[in-house]
Every structure is written in structure tokens, then in C-alpha cells.
Amino acid sequence: DTAVSQTPKYLVTQMGNDKSIKCEQNLGHDTMYWYKQDSKKFLKIMFSYNNKELIINETVPNRFSPKSPDKAHLNLHINSLELGDSAVYFCASSPLGQETQYFGPGTRLLVL
Amino acid sequence: SQQGEEDPQALSIQEGENATMNCSYKTSINNLQWYRQNSGRGLVHLILIRSNEREKHSGRLRVTLDTSKKSSSLLITASRAADTASYFCATDYLGGGADGLTFGKGTHLIIQP
Q1: What is the CATH number assigned to the segment(s) A4-111?
Q2: Tell me, which fold does domain B5-112 have in CATH?
Q3: Which of A35, A94, B16, B89 could pair with A90 in a Cys bridge, judged by C-beta atoms 3.0 to 4.6 Å apart?
Q4: Can you tell me the distance from the alpha carbon of B52 to that of B75, in angstroms, rounded to the nearest whole number?
Q5: B78-97: average pLDDT
Q6: CA A6, chain centre distance (Å)
Q7: For position A16, what pLDDT does the model report?
Q8: Measured between CB atoms, does A40 come within 8 Å of chain B?
Q9: Which residues of chain A make contact with B103, given a CB cutoff of 8 A?
Q10: What is the pLDDT of residues B30-54, one digit of tens each?
């Protein structure tokens, strides 16, 4: 069984569109995260969400918004996509108070 | 920035040899972790070492931490072809809480058969 899953695996879209990436974890973890990995493999935290508290990396544009319908899901919505948004986006989760994070397989976003 | 730096950026060795990767960071931390990423896949947690620990072992992995130098090393002994991957160090720095991990740029390890 997949612990942290993301859909879609690949996403190709036009500049200016709005898109969403879904993330689900079946580990019962309390904290979920979104990371962005650029073409040079640099991985950067975008958001963390814990008990309805959202912590935002100040460098993330407000076109990106995470939505958590329940504890097991943290979806990423992106408005007005730009070329620079092309990257691999990883969802992750961790138990409350634990540091080890469990990563999803990634969503490869290409903006044309 | 808290961003860590791995060294070397790329490493190619023969199967059976040992591989050593280094990581440096900038601010005080709660712990330091190492992750592996196979090509086109997500990250997999390998080992965590806390700020009050100096060395930790897990199978063929050995991690050291020197908080005075703000550095860590990952040693993979008796390397195998399956160890080919990118390796990242990540820090959970003091006061981070749910802020997520700060990753280095990674070392790309290639094990030649």
C-alpha cells in the first residue's frame, strides 16, 4: 500500500491556467508538507500544515495555495501558472513531534 | 539561509568501495537527516542523527555529526550498484517546528559495476 500518494504523476499545461495536485497519506500523520524541486534538484519547502495551522515559506508566491479537506489530504492549488513553476512537486508527511518525513513519488509539472 | 551544502556534487566509485559524502549547514539544529532519491522517484529517509549525538550506524550506513563545525558525513560501506542515487542531507533547525526540512543540493553517487 502506498503511504503517501500524489496525483497526477505528470501534468503538462499552458501558461496562465489554474491546476491542482492532490496528496493523500494513509499513515495517520498529523503534519503534511509541500516541497518544490527545481531542474538542478534543489529541494525547497513551500508549506507545512499541522492541526489546521499553515506555515508558509515567505518566498512562495500567493498563486500557490494548499487546501486540506481532512487530516489525510493536503492538495496544492496553483493559479495563473507561469513558466518558472515548471518543477517536480513533492508532498510529504510526518507524525506530530517526529522529524522523519515520508515523501510521495512527486508530480512533474511542465508549463508551456 | 539555512541551506546545506553537500560535497562532492558528484561521486563515481567502483562497486565494493566505500562512498563518503559531506554536508555543511549554517545554523543550530535539532537534528540532521540523510535521504536518498533514485532517479525520477521520491525521497526515502535513511538515517537521523540528533544534535547531541556524534555518530550513528544503520546497516552499511554510518553518519557522523560535528555541531562545532556544523558538518555531517555519510559513509556507505561496500557499495552496490543499487546505491546509485542522489543523497541529500536535511536539517530540522532549532525553532523549525512544523516548518519543514531544509535540504542541501545533494550528492549524485554513481556505483560502477
Answers
A1: 2.60.40.10
A2: Immunoglobulin-like (2.60.40)
A3: A35
A4: 19
A5: 85
A6: 9
A7: 97
A8: yes
A9: 35, 42-44
A10: 899 999 999 989 999 999 999 999 9
